From TrEMBL:
Keyword Transferase: yes
One Pfam family named in its UniProt record: GST_C_7
Keywords, sorted A to Z: Transferase
Name of the featured protein: Glutathione S-transferase
SUPFAM superfamilies to which the protein is assigned, alphabetical: GST C-terminal domain-like, Thioredoxin-like
Amino acid sequence: MAATKENPIIFYDLVGANGKSWSPNPYKTRLSLNYKGIPYRTEYIAFPDIEPKMKELGLAPFSSTFPHYTLPGKSSVALCLMIAIYLDKTYPAPQYPAIFAPGTAGFQHMLIPARSTAGASLHPLIHPLIHPQIPRILDPRSVEYVRRTRGARLNPLSEDEAAAKWKAARDNLTGLAQSLAFNDETGAVGPFMMGDRVSFADFALAGVFYWIRNVEGPDSIRLKEMFEWDGGRWEKHWKAVQEIENKSSEVV
């Protein structure tokens, strides 16, 4: 049975101390739901409550290594990419817009979360710069949980290490921008990875921007710099994705 406003999909999202969403992974699924126009209702969960909630729902652990549970976390569609594929299968085109154009799922998987021509993923470069700042946006219970379970990841990089990661992140996005420039040569001009067509790869990249904005704040110097790179391509990308975020199918 298709989701309706009266019987929407239940979407679990990580919550910050301000009562709002902040995590990049659930954000990809939120965008997928919004883009397809599928009604959903958000239930916000703090870090310490993820495992109890998933067990209450009878869902299997995401992995055998810690953390055992994460969000999104439905057993057979635990990964954000798999959730998007599931949504395309369950809510197919043409009634619902497709996230994956035919034959592009594997291609998009290679791009997630934005790969340079050297094949280095963007997320591992950004993660050690942003993750140590996460406690600033969490409630005390979540801060204690994160420090207890992920303490080593909260250690900040040295100034030199941070500068090297940041340069590598810029090189990564510049390599991606150079590849995407070929779209312009074929007439597929637009802000997205596939020109004017939205894809899941766009949601994955936007998740990085979303994460930085919510952890460092809307005046983040890093985010401002990123949006100036490559002739402003990434700011245009972000604004285009925000239109999908703002055109929400959430049932409030």
